[in-house]
Amino acid sequence: MKKMISRRNFLKAAGAVSAAGVLAACGSSSSSTAASTAASGSASSSAAPAAAGKVYFLNFKPEQDEAWQNLAAVYTEQTGVPVTVVTAASNQYETTLMSEMEKSEAPTLFQVNGPVGLANWKDYCYDLSGSKLYGEVTSDSFVLKDGDAVPAIAYVIETYGIIYNKELLTAAGYTQDDITDFASLKAVADDIQARKDELGVLGAFTSAGMDSSSDWRYKTHLANLPIYYEYKADGISSTDAIKGTYLDNYKQIFDLYITDSTCEPTVLASKTGNDAVAEFVNKQAVFYQNGTWAYTDIKDLGDDNLGMLPIYIGVDGEENQGLCTGSENYWCVNNMSSEEDIQATLDFVYWCVTSEEGTAAMADDMGFVIPFKGAKAPTNPLNAISDEYVAAGKTPVDWCFSTMPSEEWKNMLGSALTAYAAGTGSWDDVVSAFVDNWAAEYQLANG
């Protein structure tokens, strides 16, 4: 009999940090839901082992749906093992996961976004410590542990920052070397904004849309910076009560985004992720906060024309800061599945990260940097930029947003930011949403 989610765990999961909402970590501007089942066929290769079971992967990245569907079909053709890939709509992963887990044919492979997500789903996570997949991981820093058990393994490492158009920045009279901290970023952006008509742009930054397809960039990814610096100053990795030490810094970078922009702050509530993409691709803005996963949306600008800057917020020593690099994408195998389905799922993920077909698809089609020994170098130029910062001795910014206490915390912060931009709310409301709601939501989630 399949184990059911307790009411307490269901409520906790409902308020958990949603993987899709971050993607915030990385999500794309797409909000579509896709679902298909790979066709079965007879095994035609010994490259992947046949298994008696089947695989159902609940994917949270809309921008990689087609690539996963194609890879699943290849695996089925080689092994005869049916692989179903269902992709949750943007911002709906946690809700979809809860719904799917209650079905008789639940996902055999799903994901959590980090420690907070794992706390809600660890009872459903198969221990991967003895798996061949775990044997391929390059470092334990890419796994989540529960004592000696390994309930979750990261399958992609991603990076975000301020992507910029080199051609437009050069036309404005600047290069990346001119921007080394918040003060210089603001000086350059202010100058571009003042000369926007002369330069033929609508603004320095793309619209900081607070529609659900875009707001994760500010209530999650941008909000990571003040959390990171507070944790760093206090020597901690999580907290039940954030202090908000660096919220003045958060304010000044958000103010820059909404004033040196392609649109007025009052209309940001309706601006979408697609709007920002269009503004950047159509050369209407120089700067665009997003990550390596956005490459497929902006690649038409040309690889040589894409650069990426750290997100500077005016903290001492930030000239030595690199890009924000980490993962919130951890595979979990459903331990409530049948033994045959568990084995089939373990075989599938191992094949994905070791076979020529799997590693090529993850690198070339998905643009992933995967933390496994057999990884193929991705062709995504934004990943190469990330490596250049590391090689230059810059310190990557950790992804601390996986410690945000709940999805509701992020939603309340997003609402406060939207009202502040529109002039109907104050920054004090943003501070309250950040600090007071953190303590309250942590208490609700942890008792």
From TrEMBL:
Transport found in the keyword field: yes
Keyword line: Signal, Transport
Single GO molecular function: maltose binding
Gene3D superfamilies xref list: Periplasmic binding protein-like II
InterPro entries: SBP (IPR006059), TAT_signal (IPR006311), TAT_signal_bac_arc (IPR019546)
Keyword Signal: yes
GO BP: maltodextrin transmembrane transport; maltose transport
Any one GO cellular component localisation term in the record: ATP-binding cassette (ABC) transporter complex, substrate-binding subunit-containing
Stretch forming the signal peptide: 1-34
Top-level taxon in the UniProt lineage: Bacteria
PANTHER family per record: MALTOSE-BINDING PERIPLASMIC PROTEIN (PTHR30061), MALTOSE_MALTODEXTRIN-BINDING PERIPLASMIC PROTEIN (PTHR30061:SF50)
Family of the protein in this entry: Belongs to the bacterial solute-binding protein 1 family.
Protein name: ABC transporter substrate-binding protein
Source species: Candidatus Faecalibacterium faecipullorum
